[in-house]
Design goal:
Layout: H1 2-18, E1 23-24, H2 34-42, H3 58-71, E2 80-85, E3 90-97, E4 100-110, E5 116-127, E6 130-131, E7 138-145, E8 150-153, E9 164-165, E10 168-173, E11 181-187, E12 192-199, E13 204-205
Antiparallel strand pairs: 1-8, 2-3, 3-4, 4-5, 5-6, 5-7, 7-8, 9-10, 10-11, 11-12, 12-13
C-alpha cells in the first residue's frame, strides 16, 4: 500500500513541476468550474519545447480513470471515493486500504480583483486516523488569470506552507464551504491543535 501511495504522490509532484510554464484551463460556459481546474491539473503536459512525448504514470492514470468512471456513473475501484462538488468548488479523492488513507483535496477561490482565481491542490496520508506524512505530501497553489485562461504556480499566498512546525507535523484542510483553510498540528503524544488561515480576497493570514 505504501508503495502505491508514494507512486501516486510522486506522479502528482511530477505534474506540478511540469506545470511551471502554466496550465491552460479549457471550459465551456461563462467561467471555469472546479472540474475544469482539477481536470486541467490532472491532464497537464510538459512545455511544448520538450522533446519527449508525455506519458502518464500508471497511478496517475488510475486517478484519471476514477474521475471518468465517476462522471459516467460507473463504480469506482474498491477503496476509492471521488466527490466533485461543483456548487462549492471542491473536490475530494480518497483511497483507503486497511488503516491507510490517501486524501487529495482541490478547491478554488475567486479573487477580489475579479481578474484572477486561486486554485489549491493538497495531498495527505493518514494511518489509523492520524496524519502520517509521505514523501510527497503537501499543499500547492496556482493562480488563474481570466484573460489568458491559464493558471501558473503561485507562492504569493500570504503564508509559507509548512510541513512540520514546533515539533508537530502540519496538514491543511481546504474549505468545502466558506473561504478559510484549517491548519492542523499533529503531535507525537496524540494531541492535535488547529488554527485558521483567513482569506482576504487575495491572500491568507492568521
Amino acid at each position: 500500500m505504501k508503495k502505491a501511495l508514494l507512486a501516486i504522490l510522486f506522479a502528482f509532484s511530477t505534474l506540478a513541476l511540469s506545470a511551471q510554464g502554466g496550465i491552460k484551463v479549457n471550459y465551456q460556459g461563462d467561467r471555469p468550474t472546479i472540474s475544469d481546474f482539477a481536470w486541467a491539473y490532472l491532464s497537464v503536459k510538459p512545455a511544448e519545447d520538450e522533446e519527449e512525448e508525455w506519458e502518464t504514470d500508471e497511478s496517475t492514470n488510475a486517478v484519471k480513470q476514477a474521475w471518468i468512471r465517476h462522471r459516467e456513473g460507473k463504480a469506482l475501484d474498491a477503496g476509492e471515493t471521488l466527490s466533485i462538488d461543483q456548487k462549492n468548488g471542491f473536490v475530494l479523492y480518497e483511497m483507503k486500504d486497511g488503516a491507510n488513507l490517501l486524501r487529495i483535496e482541490m478547491c478554488y477561490w475567486n479573487e477580489s480583483d475579479g481578474k484572477h482565481k486561486l486554485f489549491a491542490f493538497g495531498v495527505y496520508c493518514f494511518q489509523n486516523g492520524r496524519y502520517s506524512p509521505g514523501q510527497y505530501d503537501g499543499l500547492t497553489f496556482f493562480r488563474y488569470d481570466n484573460a489568458t485562461k491559464t493558471m501558473t504556480r503561485c507562492d504569493d499566498t500570504g503564508f509559507e506552507v509548512a510541513y512540520s512546525e514546533n515539533g508537530a507535523w502540519v496538514s491543511y484542510d481546504l474549505p468545502r464551504t466558506g473561504k478559510n483553510i484549517t491548519v492542523n498540528h499533529w503531535y507525537d503524544d496524540g494531541r492535535k491543535t488547529q488554527k485558521t488561515l483567513k482569506f482576504d480576497g487575495r491572500r491568507f493570514s492568521f
